[in-house]
């Protein structure tokens, strides 16, 4: 684990009867964005809170930049920045005042805090709003102040807990842009999110977390490769459908599915070329409106791994519930 | 140590920064004391007999000074609970800040705002005929004692705020403190109370505080020789109360802050 800036070993966390983390092993390499992907309630925020020294693991070990979060929390706090949903701002102060206070508490000194806050407000494009009360901010502006608050000390590790949840597409892209810049500057980012697109855009490594455990890990591309690719055919009519499906099966070695107007062959490992697929379909006599080879999304990964869809907006059903 | 004081001061300023955006708060802080002076000095006061003096308002003002220190407890409790509910506390706990600095900052701000509140109340008192009679030093000592007491109660409030955690609960508890401050000799002499109640009143820290203030300001209402120890030695008792409460609640709040959420 020499190039790992942060790792956890068999971390468990229990709140009463509820097991939030159930033996989580996580290794986060330096200078990367590591995406922690999982639905609501999977344990993402809990591990973030543990790494930020806000709560302690019930058992197991978590180490940040060589410091154990339970034994040396004060040292951990020196190297992390937290931009989470939990850690909030004072609505009755301006954005800049919030930052000045956090900066001074981070030992930047009064002048250092002022310089750093102004620099970051400028860089994140909200210098104009710095002197307005946080209570009047839009979601996107708040998130950016959160992000800046996590960056005041130029932390070695930034813990980024759902930075774009509830944001519009435009603000989301802007936050992503800022996060990319950070990694260029040498920060390691642990990004917890329920958005597949977010890890695909930002992360070089992804851990999929479900019910307090890491259930898969790899680069977004590796995870996708586990699934193969999809052939996606839209037919004009149902004529010759069985024949088309039989030919596709012979070609790909996988069993196609159809809803009558569409044929999907999932998880194809050795994908034939598109012209070959088209000529086979043509030979079947079916009239084809559209043929495509599709990369699986990370939602496919999650569906394959857990048998469940990720539903970002809703709480996760408890196991055994009727649905 | 230097870090601790610097962090505490930063957090004290946080409260003061807020006043900058809501200067109206300073005006509301004017209304309460003046309402108290009118209510107790003129509405109830005309019906209250204090042995040994006909000047009820001279008796009452030190009582009000002592009584209003109780607001330090409630405002700090609400402030701390609000911070916690909002998640500001989480942010502060993730910073390399000294653990004690948050309650230290809150109590510091309360001390400063308390000095302003006391000044307002004193001006009200002067307007209705109250005067300190013992010269500069005892008067300053009295003021210092009141501020110390207020500061102490802020620590108690900080602890309670960390315990209740919800701003609404904290706000709900606030009115309960008024009767607690009134079960004392702040506004009425205790000598005609039933013995059990009188004992409770005499051991209420606010009674020592009110009696000490009366003594230091040279105002009427000194308790008789049969009164309990806290009233016959009010200054010592007030200092002891403050020391005892700080001894209990400073470590308790610090521990609670460091451990919150663990």
UniProtKB/TrEMBL annotation, chain A:
It comes from the Bacteria. It is a peripheral membrane protein. Keywords: Antibiotic resistance, ATP-binding, Nucleotide-binding, Transport. The keyword Nucleotide-binding applies. GO terms for molecular function: ATP binding; ATP hydrolysis activity. Residues 6-236 form the ABC transporter domain. The keyword Metal-binding does not apply. Gene3D superfamilies: P-loop containing nucleotide triphosphate hydrolases (3.40.50.300). Its main location: membrane. GO terms for biological process: response to antibiotic. GO terms for cellular component: plasma membrane. It holds the Pfam family ABC_tran. It is found in: Cell membrane. This is ABC transporter. It comes from Streptomyces bungoensis.
